[in-house]
Amino acid sequence: MKLNIALLAGDGIGPEVIDQAVKVCDVVATKFNHEITWKPALTGAAAIDAVGEPYPDETHEICKNSDAVLFGAIGHPRFDNDPSAKVRPEQGLLKMRKALGLFANVRPTFTFPSLLEKSPLKRERIEGTDLVFLRELTGGIYFGEKGRRDGGETAFDNCVYTREEVQRLAKKGFELAMTRSKKLCCVDKANVLETSRLWRETVQAMEKDYPEVEVSYEFVDAVAMRLVQWPNSYDVLITENLFGDILTDEASVISGSMGLMPSASLGSDIGLFEPIHGSYPQATGKNIANPMATVLSAAMMFENFGLQEEGKAIREAVNKALNEGVVTEDLAEGGKAYGTSEVGDWLAANV
Amino acid sequence: MKLNIALLAGDGIGPEVIDQAVKVCDVVATKFNHEITWKPALTGAAAIDAVGEPYPDETHEICKNSDAVLFGAIGHPRFDNDPSAKVRPEQGLLKMRKALGLFANVRPTFTFPSLLEKSPLKRERIEGTDLVFLRELTGGIYFGEKGRRDGGETAFDNCVYTREEVQRLAKKGFELAMTRSKKLCCVDKANVLETSRLWRETVQAMEKDYPEVEVSYEFVDAVAMRLVQWPNSYDVLITENLFGDILTDEASVISGSMGLMPSASLGSDIGLFEPIHGSYPQATGKNIANPMATVLSAAMMFENFGLQEEGKAIREAVNKALNEGVVTEDLAEGGKAYGTSEVGDWLAANV
Ligand SMILES: CC(C)[C@H](C(=O)O)[C@@H](O)C(=O)O
Ligand SMILES: CC(C)[C@H](C(=O)O)[C@@H](O)C(=O)O
Which residues does the annotation list for site: Important for catalysis (chains A, B) (predicted)? Predict the structure, then answer.
């Protein structure tokens, strides 16, 4: 297969972890007879510094003309405590999601047996956890009208959903549930929000098309609790944009392996693959960031092209590295800590 | 002191746990020479069944003419899976919060040494946790304009905040921080939402009035993570209505003692005091619900009247019951489980 992959390294540790994923993908491509052409492009604070915009048109052109996007991380602390900043790295991310039609964010949370002790949760709570969130990514309060009134004294953000937006996301949820244990949980706040009532009634109406899927409906506050209490009671969860933002981050830490969690954003033909961790500014340039989440995101990318074997080869290399202790300091537990690039080299050599 | 207390037992286990709090308060009143007049009133599904409305005018009259409201729980499953229900118990709760001006929901999360093992979190993560959320309770997306367009195909919920709404909540947060460890965390999503940017800039502008308080700003998704990772790194947190709904519930389970967590809603002269747990329909009428959260809510009520000794007497009785194993089945751990009313009797006798 010939693959054109847009490479958006972004900010902070983004470039370092992306470099490792490229190394690993290049070896996989050689082994399986694919040809990857990497198309680097600017995004995030890096793009603001270079051209004054977090998702420049040139970057969009490159993404649009690629088969997929491999993404590092964006965000820089100098923007976070300045509520009046006019241009923010995050705007680039949102613009990109919208422009590429990436309405479904797929975020798995699973455990690695060798890492169970890293979880803040007790072993019996976390063991066997293997859940996937499908977060709606291009609607809701993120993209509704927002602004100020009364000379800046009143602020508003509008949350809007159409039935169609709910349907296309829920469809992916039902389909995913069919390939797994046929359990789907719709997360909303239907006791308060009208948008949530639209979500619930839309999903209820779809149940008849998937008679084998057992659907449950839970309030977002209840899910925030049960994720900590019994994460392994969940399988596939679907939810709107803001709830998904909060809950997927919550879910990501319960496994204790946040540095290992990949994600995919799908919708149009072009998927975007990125680690769920952020730009981790404190670690930037120190060769200590864990590249495994990005490498596993590349595995999701191959799998999304239908290249299951390629994905599996990467996953097995990561498992082997974990078992043999070839890990960065976040997972070293007093043992030897390898550098970001050493872990990347090892994975490339063992894939 | 002469105290008129509106008694809103509500749904599910509400009436059972409220009964125990009344018993305990009556003994405290006798011991400390107070005179409590209880004014029972309808709310929730119980009120819908009786008079067709979840927060009837008569109930509001009673609350308005009382010194405080002691509240059980509301909610009934028959409303939850019916997105088209016209009247819902929750509307009563929201109407009451607004009508009584209860803009600040105070929700502590703390640990009981004897219950540390009940937490889903490992001991070293949870030990020493003692945090308080101040959740804004009468604004935001809960109360903004909501509805449908396009013949029902599009739904919207508007989130609105004024600077003044943020200021009065933040003021309570700063004041609370001054009585504790002088650390305040403002939780928002300022990288995406305009209302959050208003929150952040308003709190930033207030910092100079409280030079001793160390203020931090964190995104809601990051807090959802850190609450599970290092809950004991937080002290006082302030946040808007919906974020508060999700995060306070998440926080409530990390201690492992959800059946023990009280709350207060303050704003006008009349405070409302309630357990944070819900109406727990499965347990209704079985005399198994844990009354301690409601009893501790009554302690918060006394303390809010400036009656510190009375509050302390209740807290000490609860601690003693926990140490001596006088607990309901949720905390019994294979030991003897007492009934709801037996725990209430014991507390009343030991206060
Ligand atoms: C950076 C931010 C805008 C973004 C979001 O809120 O969607 C991030 O938290 C995420 O989850 O990808
Ligand atoms: C019942 C519901 C409307 C309510 C809320 O969302 O505020 C509840 O979850 C709470 O936190 O008190």
Answer: 142, 189
